[in-house]
Amino acid sequence: MTTMTKEVWFVTGSQNLYGPKVLETVAKDSQAIVAGLNDSGKLPVNLVWKPTVKSPEEIHAVCQQANSSSECIGLVLWMHTFSPAKMWIAGLNELQKPWLHLHTQFNAGLPWGDINMNYMNTHQSAHGDREFGFIGTRMRKERKVVVGHWQRAEVQAQLDDWCRAAMGWAESRSLKVARFGDNMRQVAVTEGDKVAAQIQFGYQVNAYSVADLAEVVNQVSDADVSAQMDAYHQDYVISDATWKESYNVDMIKNEARLELGMQRFLDDGGYKAFTNCFENLSGLTGLPGLATQRLMANGFGYGGEGDWKTSAMVRIMKVMGQGRKGGCSFMEDYTYNMGGTDQVLGAHMLEICPSIAAEKPRLEVHRHTIGVTCDVGRLLFTGTPGPAINVSPIDMGNRFRILINEVDTVAPPAELPHLPVASALWEPKPNLSVAAAAWIHAGGAHHTAYSQAVTTDMITDYADMAGVETVVIDADTTIRSFKSELRQNAAYYMLKQGI
């Protein structure tokens, strides 16, 4: 499963003007905030208290320490008192980790009967944070600003989302994607500039021939295959007709061998995401179905037909959503239901992740006829009803864009007895007419990373960390305003790049 245990550092700003007693209170209060947030169980990371910074030298030092720490994925910065913002220039100029500006105060309410100037000087986040906010804006630093008392549920939820985005960004910076075979021939949107992506997002994409993979797959022992078959029997619903038919069992064994071989290849190379293509299968028994579904369920990113951008996004979103209810899967807008409320039936040839399943998946063997004709074992299920997002990373040629559509997944109105693939049925926001038109205007792909564990805010925070455009299609979207936003974004990002 996907696991990442990292740290976010909590750094409090002040200055030496106030004397030792005030600074003792500042340290004690910030330690209490860190302990309270950690004890809340609402954060996916360990929040680490750092001593109060009171000078340009101390600020510069903690920023350098954060840069060099492999465990630190970001910083929460808070001005308990007043920290003159010029002190932060050198540190923020060198800080390479994402940071969140928490505009809060230690006490929720004011002690009206006891308040005096000592209290005011000790608890002056209201103008200390505004001074700090100016220097962030003046230096054109991208950051998240969260406002409210630190014990409020909505503040902790925003901190949770941002920490998860920071986890995704840390994963993005170290991620390796393996491509088995090439892009589907003549397809445009799954192509792109892999060098530009590595510069922008940090992840690297490396290609291998299918023969390289087949060599590892063929080394998987029969004993390991048998053990994997036992796991399938425990994890999925398998009919007696399937399990007792020797041919079907052989087809499922093919998937077991493929799964074990692919995982061994990926693990040995340090890869956490992969792609393949039904047009490049020489040496394999067929297009991996169950094998790919299980690898995704175990945390690997995947993109079909060589779609390395979506593969990377699936892995990054799995890291963001770890521990949360709801899954994440490679997905495709496949066909529409326009027989009432307009809906999208999402699916793919074989490879939908069971982490999004509404019930225990069924393992069946069916004919695969696209690119290669063979029988393939695969998991069948429908997606869990509830809110979700579809995310499409796009190479625009001169920059990258991340497109998000918020959707409501629903239960199908009837059984799908003849559909031999997993699927999810959703209603796009604000409706299919606007959502699909906006998606097309934005150049969105037919492939997406679909999740019920990751929020729009997480993706926009991640995009801010990466310095790329984000476009959101939600309940408030209109085509007129959306097209205007795209035009404005084009001008902004062109100017941002410079000459």
TrEMBL record:
Highest taxon of the lineage: Bacteria
Keywords carried by this UniProt record: Arabinose catabolism, Carbohydrate metabolism, Isomerase, Manganese, Metal-binding
Domain annotation L-arabinose isomerase N-terminal: ranges: 7-172
GO terms of biological process kind: L-arabinose catabolic process to D-xylulose 5-phosphate
Enzyme nomenclature, EC number: 5.3.1.4
Cellular-component GO terms for this entry: cytosol
UniProt remark on cofactor binding: Binds 1 Mn(2+) ion per subunit.
CDD domains: L-arabinose_isomerase
InterPro entries membership: Ara_Isoase_C, AraA_central, AraA_N, AraA_N_sf, Fuc/Ara_isomerase_C, Fucose_isomerase_N/cen_sf, Lara_isomerase
Domain L-arabinose isomerase C-terminal: 327-469
Gene Ontology molecular function terms on file: L-arabinose isomerase activity; manganese ion binding
Cofactor(s) the record lists: Mn(2+)
Domain L-arabinose isomerase central: 176-323
Pathway, per record: Carbohydrate degradation; L-arabinose degradation via L-ribulose; D-xylulose 5-phosphate from L-arabinose (bacterial route): step 1/3
Pfam families the UniProt entry points to: AraA_central (PF24856), AraA_N (PF02610), Arabinose_Iso_C (PF11762)
Swiss-Prot/TrEMBL catalytic activity: beta-L-arabinopyranose = L-ribulose
Residues engaged in binding Mn(2+): 305, 332, 348, 447
Family listed: Belongs to the arabinose isomerase family.
Function: Catalyzes the conversion of L-arabinose to L-ribulose.
NCBIfam families noted in UniProt: PRK02929.1 (NF002795)
Protein's recorded name: L-arabinose isomerase
Organism of derivation: Alteromonas pelagimontana
Gene it is expressed from: araA
